[in-house]
Specification:
By secondary structure, this protein is mainly alpha-helical. 43% of the residues lie in helices and 8% in strands.
Length: 223
């Protein structure tokens, strides 16, 4: 996908410094918070992250240097407010996996997304326990664990179809007061046959949907 107003695609050859800037966990956290909650000051983000305002201010300036965040409209003249420039940052997997450095960064990004899923499950369960989510959310939410047999072309088609449908539904629900923030992590990770030549045939545990939101969402693969 090309860059647009909501999606920035980073190239490992053209944007190595920008990619490196995103390897810092606090910067990823700050970027996710701005995407999830909207514009904020360094002090407000310090409260949310438990960091000092000096630390959040420094890392916001780094994110701004590489055009991940920008100054937002100020409520007053006392402190700078920041906003996320794009809703999603991603990379070209083929380009990233072509070099050792790119592969290392891809692994780091994916591990961070797995941690995001763990945090999201914890928050989802806490929200249900505390009654912050109504019963209407119980049935459609969940996690799928499936292992179908697909060709590379079919896997690409599946991911493109999910992306297109998500964009359609997001636009439809944008102004619906019932809409809640949903964390949707999708993975398509081919597995080579093991030493015995075994192949997974589409079986796995299945729970439907995706866990509810945490404060680090909005990054694409390996970002």
């Amino acid at each position: 996908m090309d860059n647009d107003a909501t999606h920035r695609v980073l190239d490992p050859e053209q944007d190595p410094a920008a990619l490196k800037a995103l390897t810092h966990p606090l910067r990823l956290k700050l970027l996710g918070l701005l995407r999830l909650h909207g514009p904020a000051t360094a002090s407000e983000l310090a409260v949310r992250t438990g960091e000092s305002s000096a630390s959040t201010s420094y890392h916001l300036r780094v994110l701004a240097k590489y055009a991940f965040v920008a100054e937002a409209e100020h409520r007053d003249g006392r402190e700078r407010r920041w906003k996320a420039v794009h809703a999603v940052t991603s990379t070209d997997n083929a380009a990233m996996l072509a070099t050792p450095a790119g592969r290392a960064m891809t692994v780091l990004g994916r591990r961070r997304q797995i941690e995001h899923l763990r945090q999201s499950v914890d928050r989802h369960e806490a929200d249900i326990e505390a009654g912050r989510l109504g019963e209407e959310w119980h049935d459609p939410s969940g996690i799928d664990d499936l292992m179908p047999l697909l060709t590379p072309e079919s896997l690409r088609e599946l991911r493109d179809t999910i992306g297109a449908k998500l964009a359609e539904l997001t636009a439809r629900d944008e102004h619906d007061p019932r809409a809640e923030r949903v964390v949707l992590l999708t993975a398509g990770l081919p597995l080579a046959p093991d030493d015995r030549g075994a192949r997974a045939g589409g079986k796995g545990s299945a729970d439907r949907g995706a866990p509810a939101a945490d404060e680090t969402s909005g990054n694409g693969d390996a970002a």
